[in-house]
Design brief:
Radius of gyration of chain B: 18 Å
CATH superfamily of chain B: P-loop containing nucleotide triphosphate hydrolases
Strand order of the largest sheet of chain A: 2-1-6
Number of helices of chain A: 3
Strand content of chain A: 25-35%
Structural class of chain B: alpha/beta
Distance between the termini of chain B: 61 Å
Largest interface: A-B, 38 and 32 residues
Number of strands of chain A: 6
Strand content of chain B: 15-25%
Shape of chain A: elongated
CATH class of chain B: Alpha Beta
Helix content of chain A: 25-40%
Order of helices and strands of chain A: HEHEEEEEH
Largest sheet of chain A: 3 strands, mixed
Order of helices and strands of chain B: EHEHEHEHEEHHEHEH
Radius of gyration of chain A: 19 Å
Structural class of chain A: alpha+beta
Oligomer: heterodimer
CATH class of chain A: Alpha Beta
Shape of chain B: globular
């Protein structure tokens, strides 16, 4: 269910960026999701299709790249990689860990229509 | 149609984090100590608010922001009847409170006339821990009938919280609750966390909890 909030945040970020670039249509969005988050691709895609209706991102495609998580064991200081948010330290078995990477979600890049931009640049020339 | 690729590299929850910082600044300016209660549904968050308000008023003035997924303001009404300035936030189906919801609720609260703000999050042990609100402390509220394996099943809600309340300890004689297992999970995920086994109903263990709250209020004043 929290994917709705995440999808809305992705939409706000991409629409603001597209407007700043002078574009009115967004064709595709690339998002990186860390393994230590609890966001599901399929759920995000489901919300994406419904919340983008009537926005510059309507009909756009959204692609996800998953990156692995890195945790630091606060018991024995072992650093380890994991794709499971609740993984135990492989060395000492402790669950007392701190995320070092993979606990975030980013909008990487967007593809926008160039038509309006080129038109404006032509007017300037 | 020619296409241009634009680099964005923006954190999804960055805007929530910046609103949370603004909320914190507002609370600090007014000298209000704010806590965020997270738990599964039915652990007794609202009972904890009621009992805390009754124990601390009139010496301390208390506000409550209650998040629920429907327009029914039952919990906020309970907080108000106990004596808190209470605001109900309808998340309209969302499974957690977000910083902007708190920001809007803060507009309607008499912050300069408050010492303590209790935010009662939506009953959910998964999502609320991902959204910072700007409060000074997050408290996970567990209860004995839920079972002693909760820390192992919902580690994200126990890891990194500032305090733990274990409610309904008056029911221990009737349950198979394994206190040792529960506390082992808590200590493994969050060593050194302040833990308050108590009963809102019998009052057992409640004074240690209110002492913790009062020291938070004192810290915020100084």
């Amino acid at each position: 269910m929290h994917e709705l909030s995440v999808a809305q945040s992705i939409l706000d970020i991409t629409v603001a960026k597209a407007r700043a670039e002078g574009a009115t249509r967004i064709q595709s969005i690339r998002v990186t999701i860390g393994a230590l988050t609890t966001y599901m691709d399929e759920s995000l895609r489901f919300y994406w299709d419904s919340i983008t209706e009537g926005t510059p991102a309507e009909g756009s495609t959204i692609e996800f790249t998953r990156v692995e998580g890195r945790l630091l064991c606060l018991c024995c200081s072992t650093e380890f990689a994991t794709n499971d948010p609740e993984f135990q330290c492989p060395k000492c078995g402790s669950m007392w860990t701190r995320p070092l990477a993979g606990d975030e979600c980013f909008v990487d890049s967007i593809d926008i229509d160039r038509a309006e931009i080129e038109q404006e640049e032509a007017v300037c020339r | 149609m020619p296409v241009k690729t634009v680099q964005v590299t923006e954190k999804i929850l960055a805007s929530n984090a910046s609103v949370a910082e603004a909320n914190r600044a507002k609370l600090d300016a007014a000298g209000v100590f704010a806590i965020n209660l997270i738990s599964s549904p039915g652990s007794g968050k609202t009972s904890l608010v009621e009992a805390t308000v009754r124990a601390l008023m009139p010496a301390f003035r208390i506000g409550m922001i209650n998040g629920d997924t429907s327009p029914a303001a039952l919990d906020a009404e309970r907080g108000a009847r106990a004596g808190a300035s209470a605001i109900h936030v309808n998340t309209a189906g969302k499974c957690h409170l977000e910083a902007n919801m708190i920001g809007m609720a803060l507009e309607s609260l008499p912050l300069d006339g408050l010492d303590l703000l209790i935010v009662e999050n939506v009953g959910n042990l998964v999502c609320p821990s991902h959204w910072a609100l700007g409060t000074h402390a997050t408290v996970v509220v567990a209860s004995t009938p839920e079972g002693s394996d909760k820390p192992f099943k919902y580690p994200a809600s126990y890891r990194g919280v500032d305090a733990l309340v274990l409610n309904k300890v008056d029911l221990l004689p009737y349950l198979d609750f394994d206190m040792e297992l529960f506390m082992r999970g808590v200590r493994e995920l969050n060593p050194g966390v302040s833990a308050f086994p108590l009963s809102c109903r019998s009052g057992e263990g409640f004074e240690r909890w209110t002492d913790w709250i009062i020291s938070g209020i004192a810290g915020q004043r100084s």
